[in-house]
Design goal:
Number of strands of chain B: 2
Number of helices of chain A: 10
Number of domains of chain B: 1
Helix content of chain B: over 70%
Strand content of chain B: under 5%
Strand order of the largest sheet of chain B: 1-2
Radius of gyration of chain B: 27 Å
CATH architecture of chain B: Orthogonal Bundle
CATH class of chain B: Mainly Alpha
Largest sheet of chain A: none
Order of helices and strands of chain B: HHHEEHHHHHHHHH
Helix content of chain A: over 70%
CATH superfamily of the largest domain in chain A: MetI-like
CATH topology of the largest domain in chain A: MetI-like fold
Number of domains of chain A: 2
Largest sheet of chain B: 2 strands, antiparallel
Number of strands of chain A: 0
Largest interface: A-B, 92 and 89 residues
Shape of chain A: globular
CATH class of the largest domain in chain A: Mainly Alpha
CATH superfamily of chain B: MetI-like
Strand content of chain A: under 5%
CATH architecture of the largest domain in chain A: Orthogonal Bundle
Distance between the termini of chain A: 48 Å
Number of helices of chain B: 12
Order of helices and strands of chain A: HHHHHHHHHH
Structural class of chain B: mainly alpha
CATH topology of chain B: MetI-like fold
Distance between the termini of chain B: 40 Å
Oligomer: heterodimer
């Protein structure tokens, strides 16, 4: 009897250690990524990186100024497409939709969310690149925008649903029509959550590479306007990482460090804000 | 809905109010309609996406038919397209990712939800969430320079030495291989398995655990015999979601899998996945036939991921229903 209970206690401790090790492995991946990028990318990062164009093959130096601007333009376009459709679609799901339509729209959104990003790239290629006849910022931005839609919809819907029903009823009882109640009471109450959700969605598509490969394509020079192929940070990292030149690889590390810092900083800020809000609204 | 503020005014005011509320009612209709348009846009986009994939791959669909899925040669120059090497590579890397990732992920989820102190668990879960936000091209970048040499120099010789009787672990190892693709995918799906499984486990009612502990079970026994069985469909759902991710993951796999369209039993051999093939060849495809073949590959991938996603959602739905019923 004593033996059996010791065996059970030992099993408990052993499994505690094993699952703890699993967690340790998972968590240490993030620190490994961060540490390695800081070490490798920190060496290659300098002021030129932010201000210069890529150097021609064979020359050292140069920077990724065009990729940074290109990424910013792509994200702006993506936000212009993703936010209105995502936000209003989410409002429809949470506030206006009937049972059947809500089910269909939500199911489709989940479906779209599960589509691999490279297939969204094919979509933008067939829809924009083929009719236009060439790669462009526009096509890349639309691909990223489509990727943003399902994330924003689900976020918006979730935060609107977490607004207490008493607020809605209060507004309606004071004589507000439904849309006024939604526009002046419900949406403002959920707005901080919705905005941070949108921020997270932007951070998510900022790192997407696959849908840009054959829509924005990449460019070694500036890309004025919206109709020409453009460089972007993730795409440049990909091309410089698989290149056989050592100084290109170094620059890929630097670009990786910049991209990861931006994405992680946005994520940490957004999640901390979200956490504080849910805590205050509960307490 | 009667406006209360105008009830004591004259009939003229009441009429004005009626038209005013009438306008507001219209506003309701306008708001409903506007949001509906945007919600419908999502459906339109998805339908167009499906149609484009289907229509743009008509060339190869008509020429090869079902042979496209079973053919093993991929030769863009001879216009001979068979998708089997890519399907094989996609499946092998994804299954490998699950074999490595599921025990680690579920173990970590059990630790975070059941065994770890609450505050520590919150911090660690936060870090895991951040891990899910790391772009895949960054995983690929790190994998090229750390994982690939590590597998080639340390893991492959060990596996070859101990498990050489299996055809899986034979042949020369160059690092860029199916094994590397599977390993990087395992690392990438970990945060998804952990955070969803943890949430499902946390949704298990407290009374279940307390009853088990009160009967004298240890913490581990409670976790393994009470909480995990209760949350099982949800955990399996999280695994299917992770599988869907792994099947469609592009950049990191493209960077380490070796990109050779051959079917090779050895995990040390380079392979090719569907997504990687599209990523590498699409912008270089010159013939219409080649583009059509790549889009059909995309169509195949689309159908597989939708199927896997649907199963995952169904399983997660089943758990949450059970939870609300209990």
């Amino acid at each position: 009897m004593i033996l059996r209970s010791t065996r059970r206690k030992i099993t408990n401790i052993v499994m505690f250690t094993i699952t703890g090790l699993c967690t340790f492995v998972a968590v240490s991946v993030l620190f490994f990524i961060l540490g390695y990028l800081l070490w490798q990318g920190g060496q290659a990062l300098n002021w030129n990186f932010f201000t210069k164009l890529p150097a021609p093959v064979g020359e050292t130096g140069g920077g990724f100024a065009n990729a940074i601007v290109g990424s910013a333009k792509l994200l702006m376009l993506a936000a212009l497409i993703g936010i209105p459709i995502g936000f209003l679609g989410g409002v429809y799901l949470a506030e206006f939709g009937g049972q059947t339509t809500t089910f269909i729209v939500r199911y489709t959104t989940d479906l779209l969310n599960g589509v691999p990003s490279i297939i969204i790239g094919i979509f933008a290629y067939a829809l924009i690149v083929v009719p236009m006849g060439h790669f462009s910022t526009l096509a890349g931005g639309i691909a990223l925008g489509v990727l943003m839609i399902p994330i924003t919809v689900r976020n918006t819907e979730e935060f609107l649903r977490s607004v207490p029903n008493t607020l809605r009823e209060g507004a309606l009882a004071l004589g507000a029509t439904k849309w006024r109640a939604v526009a002046t009471v419900v949406v403002p109450a959920a707005l901080p959550g919705i905005t941070t959700g949108i921020l997270l969605a932007v951070a998510r598509v900022a790192g997407e590479t696959a849908p840009l490969l054959f829509t924005a394509f990449g460019n070694r020079f500036w890309s004025p306007g919206w109709n020409q192929p453009t460089a972007s940070l993730p795409d440049t990292i990909f091309k410089y990482a698989i290149a056989p030149y050592e100084d290109w690889n170094q620059q890929a590390w630097a670009a990786g460090l910049v991209l990861l810092s931006l994405v992680l900083a946005t994520n940490i800020a957004a999640r901390l804000i979200l956490r504080r809000q849910t805590r205050t609204s509960r307490g | 809905m009667q406006p209360t503020t105008t009830a004591t005014d004259g009939p003229g005011a009441r009429r004005r109010a009626r038209t005013f509320t009438g306008q507001l009612q219209n506003g309701d209709r306008i708001a409903h309609f506007t949001t509906f348009i945007f919600a419908a846009a999502i459906i339109v986009i998805t339908v167009v996406l499906f149609y484009e994939l289907y229509a743009s791959s008509s060339l190869t669909r008509e020429k090869f038919g079902w042979r496209f899925l079973t053919g093993a040669t991929w030769d863009p120059v001879a216009l001979e397209f068979g998708a089997l090497p890519f399907i094989y590579g996609t499946l092998v890397t994804s299954i490998l990712a699950l074999i490595i990732g599921v025990p680690l992920g579920v173990g970590a989820a059990i630790f975070l939800a059941e065994l770890a102190p609450v505050r520590m668990s919150a911090v660690l879960a936060f870090i895991i969430e951040l891990l899910a936000a790391v772009p895949s091209v960054i995983y690929g970048l790190l994998a090229i320079f750390t994982l690939v040499p590590f597998l080639r120099d340390y893991i492959a010789p060990v596996l070859e030495g101990t498990l050489c009787f299996l055809p899986l672990f034979q042949g020369a190892s160059y690092g860029f291989s199916l094994l590397a693709g599977g390993c990087i995918l395992a690392i990438m799906i970990l945060p998804f398995i952990i955070s969803i499984s943890r949430e499902v486990l946390l949704a298990v009612p407290r009374e279940q655990r307390e009853a088990s502990l009160a009967l004298g079970a240890t913490r581990w026994e409670t976790a393994w015999h009470v909480a995990v069985p209760y949350a099982r469909p949800g955990i399996i759902g999280s695994i299917f979601l992770a599988l869907a991710r792994a099947l469609g993951e592009t950049m990191a796999v493209t960077m380490v899998i070796g990109n050779a369209p051959r079917i090779n039993l050895s995990l040390f051999a380079p392979g090719y996945s569907i997504a990687a093939a599209i990523a590498n060849e699409f912008s270089e495809a010159t013939s219409n036939m080649h583009v059509s073949a790549l889009i059909e590959l995309g169509f195949v991938l689309f159908c597989i991921t939708i199927l896997v996603n649907a199963v995952a959602r169904l399983l997660i739905l089943m758990t949450t229903r059970k939870g609300s019923a209990a």
